[in-house]
Amino acid sequence: MTREKILKARDLKVRFYTDEGQVNAVEGVDIDLYETDVLGIVGESGSGKSVTGLTIMGLIESPGRVDGGEIWYRNQSLVAEYESDPSVETDGDYVDILTLSDEARRRLRARSFSMVFQDPMESFDPSYTVGEQIAEAVEVQRRLADDTSGREYGLRELILSTVSNSYTFVSEQSRERAVELLEMVGLSDPEQRAQEYPHQFSGGMLQRAILAQALAADPDILIADEPTSALDVTIQAQILELLADIQEQTDMSIMLITHNLGVVARACEHVGVMYAGEIVEYAHIERILDEPEHPYTRGLMQSVPDIQVDDQQLRPISGNVPSLMDAEMGDHCYFADRCPEAKDECFAEKPPDVMLNDEHMSKCVLAEPDAQSITPDTIEQGGE
Ligand SMILES: Nc1ncnc2c1ncn2[C@@H]1O[C@H](COP(=O)(O)OP(=O)(O)OP(=O)(O)O)[C@@H](O)[C@H]1O
Ligand code: NI
């Protein structure tokens, strides 16, 4: 059985117009996220991973701008709501959320899309208890669910109030749900924990609480941006396991952003490798581990201890990630100057997206389609 894609981003372009010049943070990115998928987005610092996540959430702010592309989100009730609205693009079961109003995007953040951010300390207000803050997120979701248009409650104010943490009325029901959520993310004694303040939580516990908060809206899509990097290895592993558990319990789709291919290998089903604002390789995780195609992916694999179990000698990729300044980019492979296999043409023209088979893409002139192309069905079965 083929699975539907819950999200299809096409040719995304996101730029920052800074005093130093135009930064092409995301340049022509496609993302395919399947229902119940855990998709890893992996790449070195500054490759555009977080900007991609923020773009899907609708959180790019000045001097940043989404300069092109489409983000198709599969949601029947959203299609029904906007089908007759000429300003919104719909296509069968999908809505291009980039054509929605700011208010509609905010509503999506409250009930369909959640993001767990890089810095756990920034996710909670130190002056309220953890339970109170999660209950508030639940309350917002509850009111939205009671009223599908959301407008009668002054939705803008409602959502802004959760962002600014000014006090919202929180029902007993929402408080109970907050405790349930804390239990769901594996905190022991959740009732007690709910009454504590963020500073009373350890790093790992805080990470779990953040996840609980993100789950308050029962989202379709969860974007987790480096949820583990600040934590020690054992706790990292526990959180990844928890993410996988929660995925199974809730059936949501997860996009996991990380610079660690070991994390991806452990937690993800598909992986997109990002370099200099582009997806340079995309495939099923097993395929990437068995037959990485792009020289950058192979370089990443040699720099990660979890994967090279037999060979603990790590070889970081030499050289630096490009600046992404528009003036310095141009038509060539952005990895060419660090690539051990680069040919003359790599410095002279942009590499094509080569499809090795229906589910494996590599943006490299060296890539060649499989001799006997594997059908999507074979991959699907092989991957379950
Ligand atoms: N607010 C901003 N203003 C200017 N440039 C920005 C802004 N936010 C991001 N960028 C630039 O966009 C590019 C991509 O950044 P992004 O944060 O997406 O990288 P990343 O892959 O998430 O890196 P990391 O692993 O360090 O989090 C970088 O060159 C960054 O400097
Ligand atoms: Ni980032």
TrEMBL record:
The keyword ATP-binding applies. The lineage of its organism: Archaea, Methanobacteriati, Methanobacteriota, Stenosarchaea group, Halobacteria. PANTHER family: NICKEL ABC TRANSPORTER, ATP-BINDING PROTEIN, OLIGOPEPTIDE TRANSPORT ATP-BINDING PROTEIN APPD. GO terms for biological process: peptide transport. It is found in: Cell membrane. This is Nickel import system ATP-binding protein NikD. It comes from the Archaea. Its EC number is 7.2.2.11. It is a peripheral membrane protein.
